[in-house]
Amino acid sequence: MVAAGLVVDGEPVDSETEENYWMPNDTSTGHEGANDSGSYLADIRRLGDIEEIKQLKARYFRYVDLHWWPELRGLFADDAVFEIGESTSCPRTSEEFVASVGRHLSEAVSVHHGHMPEIRIVDAETAHGIWAMFDLVEPSAGSGYPALTGYGHYTESYRKIDGRWRITRLRLTRLKRSVDGAVVEGDGVDGRREFVEPW
Fold first, then answer.
1. How far apart are CA 61 and CA 111, in angstroms?
2. pLDDT digit string (tens) for the chain, length 199 residues
3. How far apart are CA 148 and CA 104, in angstroms?
4. C-alpha to C-alpha distance for 41 and 15, rounded to whole angstroms
5. Strands 148-161 and 164-179, sheet pairing
6. Could you give the CA distance from residue 145 to residue 108 in angstroms, rounded to a whole number?
7. Which of 35, 82, 122, 195 could lock 23 by a disulfide, CB 3.0 to 4.6 Å apart?
8. Nearest-CA neighbor of 147 among 160, 135, 157?
9. What stretch of H or E contains 121?
10. What is the pLDDT of residue 95?
């Protein structure tokens, strides 16, 4: 029987050859094509979970900048905790966090980017991540809020709830932050910088 889809050097590959083609040689047994299918499935599930968490965080940045507050709230677990050192409101719940972001950004143009995720799956329902980030906030005149430009990291934890990943812990730390053009964090560095990893 000819396998559907796999073609090597312009020729279709039969199903037995295709199976061996995707399987690495097992040097411990000497049998070519032998593999641990359970390990492969576990890797696929892990990569799928990592991709879902990337999508979760991508929606976070998009919802913040589009001011989609109900959708933003839906990304967090009900018992999520927040650690944002620069915050003056110190939100303790998901509702307080979204309300605080709304007060600061509803009349502002903002740009939030996340980069270079480091995501570690702990088990089927728990994960941790680190994201490099950049944000720019340009408030409206008379809003009372300053202009902000910042660089830093989000350190987060995640839990799968009803089959979907949610943020359970969000911590924001800064490498550099400017307020109304003046650098207020990160204006000088002397050696190794402290950073608390989530794992």
1. 8
2. 444 454 445 555 455 443 443 344 444 444 444 456 778 899 999 999 999 999 999 999 999 999 999 999 999 999 999 999 898 888 999 999 999 999 999 999 999 999 999 999 999 999 999 999 999 999 999 888 999 999 999 999 999 999 999 999 999 999 999 999 999 999 988 899 999 999 8
3. 11
4. 19
5. antiparallel
6. 9
7. 35
8. 135
9. strand 108-123
10. 97
In contact, 109 and 138? CB cutoff 8 Å: yes
**Burial of 63 (C-beta count, 10 Å sphere; 0-12/13-18/19+):** buried
DSSP 91: -
Q: What is the Cα–Cα distance from 104 to 166, expressed in whole angstroms?
A: 23
d(Cα 65, Cα 146) in Å, to the nearest integer?
17
> How many residues are present in the chain?
199
pLDDT given at position 31: 44
- Please give the Cα distance from 72 to 67 (Å, whole number): 8
Residue entry with tokens 């709304």 = 102
DSSP 16-76: HHHHHHHSPPBTTTTBTT---HHHHHHHHHHHHHHHHHHHHHHHHHHHHHHT-HHHHHTTE
Task: Please tell me the distance from the alpha carbon of residue 74 to that of residue 32, in angstroms, as a whole number.
Answer: 48
